[in-house]
Design a protein that fits this description.
By secondary structure, the protein is mainly α. The protein folds into 2 domains: 121 residues, Tetratricopeptide repeat domain (Serine Threonine Protein Phosphatase 5, Tetratricopeptide repeat, Alpha Horseshoe), CATH 1.25.40; 93 residues, Serine Threonine Protein Phosphatase 5, Tetratricopeptide repeat, CATH 1.25.40. Helix content is 83%, strand content 0%.
Length: 233
């Protein structure tokens, strides 16, 4: 009879592990629903429960960071500057915790760089993505995100009438995307970004060609398909 005890114990362990995993995913899904409804307090409660169940999952840390990030925006709009600052600091901390568990978590890098820009810390935003690129020189993802940041900063410079700096940023974005295209010529995100830059510069035919190639690599881009149709009209 005793020889069956280890098997029973093993089954119990497996059941507990499965239950823990299901709990993590269900709480994470619950948090995402709340987040989509802009119910950030409830989202944070659900994400925290998911984190307690599986503290090794980088996506949970990203979701917590994104929730703090959006909560900080709301607090700032309400004039609660001190609260917003605390929420932003918590967002930065959790973005970094996510990256410690997954050093190539693209969304976390994007969120962290965006938050730094919103806090008017462009140097930290650029350095974050440059460091990622230096660690992963072959990967197209850091180049795509860094190009996006250069584009966003170029728009800021144009508003500030710093046309020379804006031009330098736009040129840097083009070079990064061209380099990414050499590494991964079929990458739909690279092609889409290149098309956007060409469209911004008035090269409609070139933009349409890149959009078409992006859709060939990934047809599940309805917004891009609609954009392409508008250009072709």
């Amino acid at each position: 009879m005793n020889r069956f005890v280890p098997i029973i114990q093993l089954l119990l362990i497996l059941m507990l592990c499965c239950f823990g995993g299901c709990t993590m995913y269900s709480k994470n899904a619950e948090g995402l629903r709340y987040f989509g409804q802009q119910r950030y307090a409830e989202a944070m409660t659900a994400f925290t429960a998911a984190q307690n169940t599986d503290p090794t999952n980088p996506d949970v840390y990203y979701n917590i960071a994104a929730t703090y990030h959006q909560s900080g925006k709301v607090s700032l709009q309400q004039g609660q500057t001190a609260v917003a600052q605390q929420q932003y600091e918590s967002a930065i901390q959790n973005y970094k915790l996510c990256l410690a568990k997954n050093p190539n978590h693209t969304a976390a890098y994007r969120g962290l760089a965006t938050l730094y820009m919103e806090c008017q810390n462009a140097d930290a935003a650029f350095q974050t993505l440059i460091d990622w690129q230096n660690v992963n020189p072959v990967s197209p993802e850091p180049k795509i995100e860094l190009a996006r940041l250069y584009q966003e900063f170029a728009q800021i410079c144009l508003v500030q009438r710093r046309d020379d700096v804006a031009k330098e940023c736009q040129d840097a974005a083009v070079k990064l995307l061209q380099s990414a295209a050499v590494t991964d010529p079929a990458n739909y995100r690279v092609l889409r970004a290149l098309g956007y830059l060409k469209e911004q510069n008035g090269d409609i035919a070139g933009a349409a060609a890149d959009y078409q190639r992006s859709l060939q690599s990934n047809p599940n881009q309805k917004d891009l398909s609609d954009r392409l149709a508008a250009l072709q009209r």
